[in-house]
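Q: My collaborator sent me two sequences in one message, no labels, and asked for predicted structures for both. Can we handle them in order? The first one she listed is below.
A: Yes, handling them in the order given. First sequence, followed by its structure tokens:
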Amino acid sequence: MATVGRPRSFDKDEALKKAMYVFWEKGYEGTTMADLIESIGMKAPSIYAAFGNKDAIFKEVVQTYLPIVVDGQLKVLNSFPEIYDAVEATLNACVNLYTGKDNPSSCLVMTAAINTAPEHAEHIGSLRDLREKYKDAWQKRFEQAKFDKQLPENANAFELAEYFTTLIQGMTIKAKDGASKYSLDATVKLAMKVLK
């Protein structure tokens, strides 16, 4: 007697990647289970059996998305010995991500759960925590730059981290509103004057 369940070709990582792009594009509240079912291409019972409900899928999707930030922007931030080059390259990496044709024009961590219904407020908190960790990584990089005498003694690593991560969050919103790469590149050039 044949058993009912996931098809043999089921690839959980691939399914999560498909779900990730839906949440990335529509945000948590804008995404329905019907959207996820259509994107993943499996029947509802199989999706529920594999992942659980929409909340559970979103939590796994966030973990799937994180390497895009950690292995992308933050890796770039810490790959250049000079702070000016590190910041410029990281901001450019952000712009390329937000305006790339293969990605939704935003950042999942920055925009997917800014507002949710009260019963889903945990997602606001978890993404806020991730944004704080992102800011902490920037602050540590600026502290290293001060230690290496690449910034003036009176430079404030905390304030610089606040400024640049606020800039990045703003760029995600602008990109979601349709800002061009040219426009965001101009923003980056202006922002870099802070470090001159």
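Q: And the one she listed second?
A: Here it is, processed independently of the first:
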Amino acid sequence: MPAAAPAALASEVEVLAFDIFGTVVDWHGSLVRELAQTWPQVDGNAFALAWRAGYRPAMARVMSGELGWTLIDDLHRTILDQILPQFGLAHLDEAARQHLNRAWHRLDPWPDAVAGLQRLKSRYLLCTLSNGNLGLLTRMAKRAGLPWDCVLSAEVFRAYKPDPSTYLGVARVFDVPPARVMLVAAHHDDLAAASACGLRTAYVERPLEFGALQIKDVSPQPGNDLHARDLLDLADQLGC
């Protein structure tokens, strides 16, 4: 689908669907801060990266059929139990493990996120499109003040991104053609999968997604309709 000018997109798009982890919320910084408060002897940067590194392999086990359908909360817990001994935390009891696993519900938004979403909400329907489960995403939104019109998740479609049923599912939920939905994400693979399903796409730069020691390349890549520095910049481009 050829890219349209921002002014044209503003009238063509009705629904903005947002990736969450890394795009709207700072998972790495939030986990590092949580570890610093509770277990300051632990290398929070390494812990956060190790926890996140288990995410795709765990989902792959579900998508291959090795595991039945599993919520991200439960996958996060499986990964957590695996990495705790590496960081000297094998002694944590069940209550402490449950609390730490819920850190994903307590992730802080990027500084521009809430204001940017509020501006975009003045013109568009806003929904999540995340592999996170409904309870996680709802608690996160409540705590962080994220003004969603609707919370959609892999849990709704019983499929993880990049399964086409997730992207096309948003269009079905709102009864619009895929081209009237725009995925907003900080990950090119997510956006490419959405574009292949006929959705519009907006890339958001999050150079610090993996922390200051691992700066992410956020150079523009072909194929996306919009490229924004942050959600406030996206709101500017869409005339909000």
